[in-house]
Automatic annotation (TrEMBL):
Domain Prokaryotic-type class I peptide chain release factors: 16-32
UniProt feature, compositional bias: Basic and acidic residues: 118-133
Any single Pfam family the record assigns to this protein: RF-1
NCBIfam families listed in its UniProt record: PRK09256.1
Name of the molecule in the record: Aminoacyl-tRNA hydrolase
Matches recorded under InterPro entries: Pep_chain_release_fac_I, Pep_chain_release_fac_I_sf
UniProt-listed Enzyme Commission number(s): 3.1.1.29
EC class name: hydrolase
A GO term for molecular function: translation release factor activity
Lineage of producing organism: Bacteria, Pseudomonadati, Bacteroidota, Flavobacteriia, Flavobacteriales
Family according to the record: Belongs to the prokaryotic/mitochondrial release factor family.
GO terms (BP aspect): rescue of stalled ribosome
Organism the protein comes from: Flavobacterium alkalisoli
Coiled-coil region list: none
Keywords: Hydrolase
């Protein structure tokens, strides 16, 4: 993965933030929406695209576009930096392959303890029954 090449493929759009905030919110477009077209990306090879699309399946739309937005700061430039940083972290995390799970054997002491507890509970229940002559 080439970060510089991916960053050149990003599309930014500035819109007005929603919610309360007075005059500044009403006249300044400080919210930044980042769009990344995963399917048409030249920075990722096919294997990386497949891995990212599997891990981020819930965040991609039907056209394979990943959208992130940021309106944390009053500055459009700062929001652009934040959303870009968040995007890079998200892509790097999705490109990491999961370690294969190693099956482990249940220790004999754990099995013995479980069976002893089970036997103790059964004896307790047995002692509560009526005695039949």
């Amino acid at each position: 993965m080439d970060k510089e090449k991916i960053i050149t493929e990003l599309e930014y759009k500035a819109v007005r933030s929603s919610g309360a905030g007075g005059q500044n919110v009403n006249k300044v477009s400080s919210k930044v929406i980042l769009s990344f077209n995963l399917l048409n990306s030249q920075a990722l090879d096919n294997e990386e695209k497949e891995l990212v699309s599997q891990k981020l399946a819930t965040r991609l739309n039907s056209e394979g576009i990943l959208s992130l937005h940021c309106d944390e700061d009053r500055s459009q430039i700062r929001n652009k930096q934040l959303v870009t940083k968040r995007f890079i972290e998200l892509i790097e995390a999705s490109l990491q392959k999961d370690k294969p799970r190693v099956a482990t054997k249940i220790p004999k002491a754990v099995i013995k303890k479980r069976l002893e507890n089970k036997r103790r509970q059964a004896d307790k229940k047995q002692s509560r029954r009526r005695f039949d002559f």
